[in-house]
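Field reference: sequence -> structure
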Amino acid sequence: MEGAKELCLNDAVRLAQPKRLAFVPEGASRFVRYCVVGGAGAVVNMAVLWWIRSGGILGTLRAAVVAIECGIISSFLCNETWTFQDRSRLRPRLRNRLWRFGYFNLICGTGAIVHLAVLWTLAINWRWYYLVSNAVAMGAVLPWNYGMNTLWTWARPPQGPA
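Structure field:
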């Protein structure tokens, strides 16, 4: 019985490990995982934005600020444990995770300025539907968020002398 539990736990851990997606070239696999996580974060973002705005709690831009931060938090947790798990394991301490969360929040917060500018232009000035405008704004900041988080938040640690 004990061996069966251990086998199941080992299988679960093995299955949760990041793998190269067979249908994607090796260099693009991390970007695909980042986009899958970003898609989940986008669902969180859209749901929070819809809930706050349609409930009349806040206007479009203020609701978007709250929605963006909710998406940032959910995306960080998924990226930390799946997309960049190999790099996160190199610095696993809580202090390191908190620093990475700070970096991630700073980078995505900088991207949020562009996000809000695109949202304001499309939804407020051009009167597009706010959820469509929000989706376009998320796409506009994807290259910035991925590039900077890959280079800075989950940077490879420097290699020491051999």
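Note: The mean pLDDT is 87.
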